């Protein structure tokens, strides 16, 4: 969820229903409670009333009301303001009628709250003041204390009350992706320093990911205990790894995050970019739902993942910038291919692009629901 920047995009229309759950106040999926929503049911492989749909990075990015609210407030500051978190999270639910809200936050937020000096620079992304380059640097990382997450619990409780039967998805960054930011010192295309550290310093690497797994689990527990109905673990950059390296050097730590939820009975979604060769492994880490980017068709992804897990995805975000006929055709294709999975949550293959017309997102929601109804 870490945006490199929040640039202004072209003028957009601003139609918005009056309640978080849609113009009528009913849950988009028709369920009486989040646990019976189409999102949760699809994640568990149960029958649904219609295919649930939400969008990664729907909380912000393309919405003019988001940019107006965020004006003058830094990203990481906004993420720690319970009032802003609540309103920004609700905005796309009101506007688009999506079947779930995703908590407005940032994957580096647990590190920042713990005391790591990180700044999100416009046009760049998260920049770490003191990168991790040694065992001593790993040991110097401060732990995330649960009592520092009161703002988060407050925001989640408010959201759950506002959303009613519409589920709230909590999220955290996976250990590997957080490690890339800490080791590289910021965004990277090759992640060369990260992989070199992983190969050359196996004990320090394992210790680092252990610490990050504890932090991510702490962050997720705070959200679930406050009422989040599902969680998503973002391993944005896991696709740079071979399947063998992921299986031996990363998967155990991602599994530790999910295991850290203990008996909390919420669906667990696991997503990464460029992870076509890792899809089965992402499920093995403890996911109920495997997120798929746009590179692998969902029917093929279903074959790779197997019948025990649902899928989420996977419209290419760039398609939303095309003409309406193209958008409709691609949405229909994704919905049709998603029927091969145990359960299907319609989403993009990554986040909403900032220049996306919000009206197109609303039309996609309507079309997915119509197709499912038909």
Question: Would you tell me which CATH topology of the domain at 49-289 and 297-308 applies?
Answer: TIM Barrel
Strand order of the largest sheet: 1-4-5-6-7-8-9
Radius of gyration (Å): 19 Å
**Named CATH architecture of the domain at 49-289 and 297-308:** Alpha-Beta Barrel
How would you portray this structure in words?
The N terminus is likely disordered. It is globular and about 55 Å long. The chain has a domain of 253 residues: TIM Barrel. Helix content is 43%, strand content 11%. The relative contact order is 0.15. With 374 residues, it is α/β, with parallel strands linked by helices.
Keywords:
374 residues; alpha/beta; TIM Barrel; 7-stranded parallel sheet; two-stranded antiparallel ribbon; 16 helices; 9 strands; 43% helix; 11% strand; globular; disordered N terminus
Task: Write a compact overview of the structure shown.
The chain is of the alpha/beta class and 374 residues long. It is 43% helix and 11% strand. A hairpin with a 3-residue loop joins strand 2 (118-121) and strand 3.
Topology:
Blueprint (H helix, E strand, L loop, with lengths): L37 H6 L20 H7 L4 H4 L3 H15 L4 E2 L6 H6 L3 E4 L3 E4 L6 H6 L9 H14 L4 E6 L1 H10 L7 H9 L1 H24 L4 E6 L7 H7 L1 H9 L8 E5 L6 H6 L4 E3 L6 H8 L4 E6 L8 H15 L5 E5 L9 H16 L1
Parallel strand pairs: 1-4, 4-5, 5-6, 6-7, 7-8, 8-9
Antiparallel strand pairs: 2-3
Helix pairs in contact: 4-7, 8-9, 8-10, 9-10, 10-12, 15-16
């Amino acid at each position: 969820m870490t945006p490199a920047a929040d640039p202004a995009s072209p003028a957009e229309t601003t139609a918005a229903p009056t309640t978080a759950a849609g113009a009528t106040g009913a849950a988009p999926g028709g369920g009486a409670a989040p646990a019976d929503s189409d999102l949760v049911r699809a994640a568990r492989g149960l029958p649904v009333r219609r295919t649930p749909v939400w969008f990664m990075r729907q909380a912000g990015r393309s919405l003019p009301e988001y940019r107006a609210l965020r004006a003058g407030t830094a990203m990481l500051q906004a993420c720690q303001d319970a009032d802003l978190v609540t309103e920004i999270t609700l905005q796309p639910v009101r506007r688009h009628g999506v079947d779930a809200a995703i908590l407005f936050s940032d994957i580096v937020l647990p590190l920042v709250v713990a005391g790591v000096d990180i700044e999100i620079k416009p046009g760049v992304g998260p920049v770490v003041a003191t990168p991790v380059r040694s065992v001593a640097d790993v040991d110097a990382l401060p732990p995330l204390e649960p009592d520092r997450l009161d703002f988060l619990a407050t925001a989640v409780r408010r959201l759950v009350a506002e959303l009613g039967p519409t589920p709230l998805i909590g999220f955290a960054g996976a250990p590997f992706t957080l490690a890339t930011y800490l080791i590289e010192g910021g965004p990277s295309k090759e992640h060369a320093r990260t992989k070199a550290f992983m190969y050359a310093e196996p004990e320090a690497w394992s210790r680092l990911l252990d610490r990050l797994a504890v932090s991510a689990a702490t962050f997720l527990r705070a959200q679930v205990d406050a009422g989040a109905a599902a969680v998503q673990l973002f391993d944005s950059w896991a696709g740079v790894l071979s399947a063998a390296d992921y299986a031996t050097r990363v998967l155990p730590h991602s599994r530790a995050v999910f295991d850290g939820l203990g008996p909390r009975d919420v669906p667990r979604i696991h997503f990464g970019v460029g992870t076509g060769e890792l899809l089965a492994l992402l499920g093995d880490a403890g996911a109920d739902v495997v997120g798929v980017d746009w590179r692998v068709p969902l029917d093929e992804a279903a074959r790779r993942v197997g019948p025990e897990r649902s899928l989420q995805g996977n419209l290419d975000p760039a398609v939303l910038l095309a003409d309406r006929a193209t958008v409709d055709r691609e949405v229909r294709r994704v919905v049709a291919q998603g029927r091969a999975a145990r359960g299907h949550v319609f989403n993009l293959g990554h986040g909403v692009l900032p220049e996306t017309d919000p009206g197109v997102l609303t039309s996609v929601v309507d079309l997915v629901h119509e197709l499912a109804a038909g």
